[in-house]
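Take a look at the protein record below with the fold in mind.
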Amino acid sequence: MSAGSPAERYLAAQTARVHPLTSDFAAMQRFELDAFQIAGCHALEDGRSVLVAAPTGAGKTIIGEFAMHLAMLEPDTKAFYTTPMKALSNQKFRELVDIYGADEVGDDLTQARCVRFDRDLCRGIDVGEECQTLLFRMKGQQRRNLFHQIGGIEEA
């Protein structure tokens, strides 16, 4: 990232003040985020829901990764993710373990905070073929309701 003009530096400082979590997350990336990625992250930081529709390879996943980042900042929050292919799920699993540690990432709904939500786990739940990436944050009763839907799993 270049220093930019005084006006660009001022805009960056204002953005960092209004959306500090997005700014910190963006600074951790190996590349500059595109405008749609920043807009999606800002919406999530503001507590709004986001639906991203873009071609394959456009960078939708970074917004999901930011949602995961937000969830992991809150101690009583779990984040669930899924992917359209098992190989991609395994790759994302390894990346998340590298970021958050093996104790925080896994397939165990009762232990992990960052949970891989794959077809084996989703028995009886129709996640739909069109689902490219599902990532959401859950707290308390919402999480207990999901566990109940999956098959009577109780939280530890």
Notes: Residues 124-138, 150-156 have pLDDT under 50 and may be disordered.
